[in-house]
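We now fix the convention by which a protein and its fold are recorded. The integers have meaning only within a learned vocabulary of local backbone shapes. A complete example follows; check for yourself that the lines match position by position.
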Amino acid sequence: MKYLIVTLVKGKLEKFQQKLLYDIPKKFNAKRAILRKPPAHITLKYFFETNDIGKVEKFVKEFCKSHKKSNYRARGFGHFQNDVIFIDIDPSKEMVKTRREFLKRLESETEIEFLNVDRDSQFHISVAHTDINEEYDKIWSYVNKTNPEFNCRFDNITILKVEDNLLKVHKIYNLK
């Protein structure tokens, strides 16, 4: 089975992101971002496959018991070339430290395969990606009519699974 490890986004930011995520395909020819019906999230570990998620579950559960919640700000938009448009995240030092330690230990304590993108990823919440090249300028202009600014909590680490080609919550673990 295929999995993804994230922190779920909640509250006003979740509502804002989900509205934008689903409004963009209605206005533009850019539907790839919603094909898996993703919940609002910040990716911590990109897709991986395993037939035994138990070891990962145990690791995440124990990690969350010993690590505290922290803050971040969601502010404005950013992009990766003309392929991805996202809400930009300004993480606290504590959030950066927690993710760094999480990934380091996850890699050493489980058999999950890591890619460079896992180690070098920028905190962000996608609103459009993959099929946006042709309409990138229009989408970029559209999203920048708003100026999102939210104070948020990094309070969970969640395992999502791909089931029936959709992203579904597998397990949520709350940070202490």
Q: What stands out?
A: The chain has a mean pLDDT of 96. The chain has five helices and eight strands. The chain has one domain: 2-174. Residues 2-174 form a domain with the Cyclic Phosphodiesterase; Chain: A, fold (CATH 3.90.1140.10).
